[in-house]
Amino acid sequence: MDVNKNSYTFLFATAMVVVVAASLSFAATNLKPFQDTNVEQEKMQSILNSIQISVERSQAPGAYQTYIKEAFVLQRGEAIEGQDAFAIDLAKEIRKPDQERLSPLYIAEKEGETYYIIPLQGNGLWGPIWGYVSLKEDINTVYGATFDHKAETPGLGAEINTPVFEDQFKGKQMLDSNLSFIGIDVRKGDASSEYEVDGISGGTITSDGVEAMILDCVKAYVPFLKTHSGATATASLITE
Q: What is the pLDDT of residues 82-111, one digit of tens each?
């Protein structure tokens, strides 16, 4: 074959495209189980971080089994059967009307104490933000919080996943003394109450996104919070 002909160039380019496409498809197919495992382990890490358990990603499954004792899915404030809490796609659920939303709830035990972990999903300045907030046995007081993001600005909005920001949430309250849902106000440096934390300097939009995320996600749990606040909830939450 004359390598100087256009037909040779066309055939060679076609062959290369087919080979590269086949190689990429093969790699993607074979790597997907490993990618899925990494995603699951990172999710377990984040859930555990909300109750101040820090482990390597490879150790997350074992630690998750140790500390997470129950996982339920709530709808309209009541636990329902037939749903896997860990498999719920919260990014899809938050787009549904409140009455239709499926909301995972994880119950953890650590050093003889019970904690209730609520997943969060929202929007920052440049993309999705997410996290987990854990509540103490009164199901009102925040024990820990962890946040992450996809594309927030380094040194500004990206600071939501640093201890300086996350540690402020410890001890904050979700409900007031009348059991009205307050949420947590992310303020511009003047936080002073049990319902407020300081936002990130220069990261106002991302800080506002965290506040909105907490309000939007936790409101689905308010019926449960009001029912059980101030007293330990029973381990068996599934309705008959």
A: 999 999 999 999 999 988 999 999 999 999
